[in-house]
Design goal:
Belongs to the peptidase C1 family. The protein is an alpha+beta fold. It has a single domain, classed as Cathepsin B, Chain A. The protein has 5 helices and 4 strands; from the N terminus they run ααββααββα. The protein has a two-stranded antiparallel ribbon. A two-stranded antiparallel ribbon has the order 3-4. β1 and β2 form a beta hairpin. The protein is globular and about 40 Å long. The two termini are about 15 Å apart.
Length: about 120
């Protein structure tokens, strides 16, 4: 199974709705892929940035599934978890690469996981 994570690192954020749902989905995907490398960990920060179910003040599991169905979600290599709802839902707020002293730039056309990917994992 995928690792357990703490939603309150690096600071307090009530994002259990995102962590719990994505943990279940990450585990299902890992099982379906027979633990193939690299492990896929979906980005809870994108859900927070884009209102995909809630904010750091709480949220709704159903909103995560709606977001996955309508938009898809990148893995965490696109958007590290910052435990804040201060980031906008812009292309950079979904997938970016950052370098010290150079700022951040968006990644065009990141790989997005959708609810269909999980339907396969759940039925496989």
């Amino acid at each position: 199974l995928t690792e357990s994570r703490n939603q309150h690192i690096p600071q307090y954020c009530g994002s259990c709705w995102a962590f719990g749902t994505l943990s279940m989905l990450n585990d299902r995907l890992k099982i379906a892929r027979k633990a193939a490398y690299p492990e896929t960990i979906l980005a809870p920060q994108v859900l927070i940035n884009c209102g995909g179910g809630g904010s750091c003040e709480g949220g709704n599991v159903g909103g995560v599934f709606e977001y996955l169905e309508s938009k898809g979600l990148p893995d965490e290599t696109c958007q590290n978890y910052e435990a804040t709802d201060d980031f906008p839902c812009t292309p950079t707020g979904v997938c970016e690469t950052c370098a010290p002293g150079k700022g951040c730039t968006k990644i065009d056309k990141p790989a997005l996981w959708t609810i269909g990917d999980y339907a396969y994992a759940l039925s496989g």
